[in-house]
Design goal:
This protein is of the alpha/beta class. It is 32% helix and 21% strand. It is built from eleven helices and 13 strands. A seven-stranded mixed sheet has the order 9-8-7-10-11-13-12, sandwiched between helices. A three-stranded antiparallel sheet has the order 1-2-6. Strands 3-4-5 form a three-stranded antiparallel sheet. It starts with 6 loop residues before the first strand and ends in a 12-residue tail after the last strand. The N terminus is likely disordered.
């Protein structure tokens, strides 16, 4: 088992937040980078892999073996550099700085401490909580590039431990408020600290930034925010798991204002993206798909296609952009600009 996957400490396991290079991407730092034909089995297999480590079981399932292969981890849209701590006991922080727009950067907490066994086995969801995944990275880059399109109230759903895209909107866009959310309490505890650290740096301006647990299947969570947001965004939020798709569609529909728009970044994963689109249309949302939405992302995609599927499989690594609206579809977004 690779060291990047987990490190045992006093009966607990530390899982890293960030994946710092494509070459050294660990077993747990590629979001569902296993066999695309496995569908939902890939998500289950990844956590089965970790559970087997925790229980010191043999990694014997073919699906589990497949998801443990080192795969594509980043489109290199942000530089990552460690912030020198003021004292040895201080948490480790990493500065994520946009390559295309270096005037915009955010601080992310890198030293999360140990992940306890019962948190892995019993948590609501863990799949997005240990690093910045490629879809989140691409969405954050897109948000910075299209920062002038954001207005009013913005929400990121399922942002995991970092909510990098929502954080970048709060930093670079002229918006009233940004809500960073996830269904996992441990993730939101970390996001609160991320907000506080960036607030101290003075990067939010007049934008109000907050965080909270939002479970899409929770009537209380959704109703509390109903009709509140001009823009909702989410990256790779369990479109591959059938039990989450309908509740995510319902949450997006209900949280949007009448003229609001949702941005969803996710790989195709065979027909899982298509199933999500059909559910959204059945719920009364207008859906548009965009494949070439950014020239820099597209160039990396084309280059990586030449590396072979062992390194990069566009079916599970290249995020498609979906735009969802409650009313008629808005004019097409600018592509490859």
């Amino acid at each position: 088992m690779q060291r990047e996957m987990c490190e045992e400490k006093d009966g607990r396991f530390s899982v890293p937040l960030l994946d710092h290079s494509r070459k050294d991407a660990g077993n747990s730092t590629q979001k569902l980078d296993g066999d695309a034909t496995a569908g939902a089995d890939v998500a289950r297999a990844r956590w089965t892999l970790l559970r087997q480590v925790l229980h010191q079981k043999q990694v014997d399932s073919p699906v589990v073996k497949q998801v443990s292969v080192r795969r594509f981890a980043t489109f290199d849209l942000f530089t990552r550099s460690r912030v020198v701590p003021s004292c040895p006991s201080e948490d480790q922080w990493v500065e994520y700085r946009s390559v295309s727009f270096p005037e915009y950067s955010a601080l992310l907490r890198d030293n999360l401490g140990p992940l306890r066994v019962n948190e892995v086995l019993n948590s609501f969801d863990n799949t997005g909580n240990v690093c910045v995944w490629p879809s989140e990275e691409v969405m954050a880059h897109y948000c910075v590039k299209k920062r002038k399109m954001f207005k009013g109230s913005v929400c990121e759903l399922g942002g995991g431990m970092t909510c990098l895209a929502g954080l970048m909107v709060a930093i670079c866009a002229d918006v009233k408020e940004v809500l960073l959310s996830d269904g996992n309490e441990k993730a939101i505890q970390n996001v609160r600290q991320v907000i506080e650290r960036n607030l101290q740096s003075g990067v939010f301006g007049s934008t109000h930034v907050s965080s909270r647990v939002v479970r899409w299947d929770s009537e209380a969570d959704v109703s509390a925010l109903e009709g509140h947001f001009d823009i909702i965004m989410c990256a790779d939020c369990h479109l591959y798991l059938s039990r989450y798709r309908a509740s995510l569609v319902d949450a997006i529909r209900r949280l949007l204002r009448p003229n609001g728009m949702a941005l969803v970044f996710a790989p195709r994963r065979r027909d899982t993206l298509g199933v999500f689109c059909r559910l959204a249309q059945e719920a009364g949302l207008s859906v548009s798909q965009h494949q070439q939405y950014d020239s820099q992302v597209w160039d990396v995609h084309v280059k990586m296609q030449g590396e072979g599927k062992d390194a990069y499989d566009d079916n599970i690594h290249y995020p498609i952009l979906l735009t969802l609206t409650r009313g008629p579809q808005l004019p097409p977004l600018g592509h490859t600009q």
